[in-house]
Amino acid sequence: MIAELPKEEILRQREFAAMVRELLAVRTQGASAFVQTFGCQGNEADSERLRGMLELCGFARAETMETADLILFNTCAVREHAQDRVFGNVGAVKSLKERNRKIHIGVCGCMAQQKHVAEKFRQNYPFVDLVFGTHALHRLPELLYQLYTAQKRVFALDETAAIAEDIPLRRSSDFRAWLPIMYGCNNFCSYCVVPLVRGSERSRSPARVLAEAKELVAAGYKEITLLGQNVNSYRAADAAGETVDFPKLLRAIDDIEGDFWLRFMTSHPKDCSEDLLQVMARGKHIAMHLHLPAQSGDDGILKRMNRVYTSGEYLRVANRAKELMPALSVTSDIIVGFPGESYDNFKNTLRLAEQVRYTSLFTFIYSPREGTRAAALPDPVPHAEKVKWLQELTALQERVSAEQCDAMRNRTLRVLCEDDGKKMRWSGRTQGNQIVEFDGAAQIGHFCVVKITNVIKSRFYGEMI
Ligand code: 5AD
Ligand code: SF4
Q: Could you write out the three-class secondary structure of the chain?
């Protein structure tokens, strides 16, 4: 297990924050910052920490990028497309900087952790002032201090990944919370850049996680999502030195008194144990949703992806989960067009999706990532062909989703209302994370019971009862 950063380091950052606050007070009459997030919930959670640190440094929250004195892009490297979007968005703020030299632009997160990408920002984006990777996130106050005092560009590509606790945090919602329980990943799936940019697995202390969950429930949060690249491999020692694994942690959080839903993601099928399914099935608060990425339904491809399970093993886990929890919504990620994948291989993925009957699927065309093992493999299938396969899978899933949704007509479901009804109707999510649009006297951030009166494709419409 990798240790937490020493307290002194966190205190040192607080001192830097105070110094930045003083600098800002002298230089300007109040500065504001804007954080733009790309990518997964892990990045959303990191951005909440970035905003907390910015607040401590004396920044107000800018409503728009155009009005901000500091713009930070918290980036995603998981696919080329995500990365291109970041380059496009960063490129677009060049003109803001040209109009107003006083603003500062920073890029951080997964893209910035990669040396070759940081180098690209150094060479081709001279208007970017600050670049720091995931491992340096907690050092934002210090980096801002350097930026403002040295008046030159700052690059921080720390190599060591530790757990930074007690970082100030500004949550983006007052009813839905991200709760990271572990960071990094040891799985090295052959296509995936995450272990390279987020480092090896490290689990937070169970006492800290539990205390944070209790605080959230006491503060009225209605949905808590435990986050990690592979939450199932959470493992840490408690105060008595006993090992706490993920099922045990989940059970402890589920035992908290209150009215809330407990979610978690992402689960690796290899570690999705009977013990975990039992805890889920018996839970009082655990949402009936399991995000269980299959990535492929073909054993040869799974092997080359280094997923370490077969499609049969995957199916057994998914079936067992549904057997224990008939109302469970199972969702998945699928990569189409892995190097060397043939249409026959792909047909096995179609078959798996048909057999599991997912509630919904996140589908991606394989994207080669520098530094991963798969990037070196021959990849003869043309992109246009992969797009066709993807469409075939999407069509299958749309049919399966629509069939499942249709069976929910006239049922009543508990929904967490999340939208203010500006589109004439309210909208919210079910335990299975499906969106429901409905009429009635709802309130944002509160649970309500909705009768499903209509289903169009895989969207629910209903009335509050
Ligand atoms: N290409 C395409 N999809 C990828 N994912 C991860 N790496 C890649 C890649 N190189 C997908 C996986 C993962 C999800 C978050 O992103 O399906 O589960
Ligand atoms: Fe990437 Fe695999 Fe780790 Fe998920 S489990 S983050 S896909 S390496």
A: CCCECCHHHHHHHHHHHHHHHHHHHHHCCCEEEEEEECCCHHHHHHHHHHHHHHHHCCEEECCCCCCCCEEEEEECCCCHHHHHHHHHHHHHCHHHHHHCCCCEEEEEEHHHHCHHHHHHHHHHCCCCCEEEEHHHHHHHHHHHHHHHHHCCCEEECCCCCCECCCCCCCCCCCCEEEEECEECCCCCCCCCCHHHHHCCCEECCHHHHHHHHHHHHHCCCCEEEEECCCHHHCEEECCCCCEEEHHHHHHHHHCCCCCCEEEEECCCHHHCCHHHHHHHHHCCCECCEEECCCECCCHHHHHHCCCCCCHHHHHHHHHHHHHHCCCCEEEEEEEECCCCCCHHHHHHHHHHHHHHCCCEEEEEECCCCCCCCHHHCCCCCCHHHHHHHHHHHHHHHHHHHHHHHHCCCCCEEEEEECCCCCCCCEEEECCCCCEEEEECCCCCCCEEEEEEEEEECCEEEEEEC
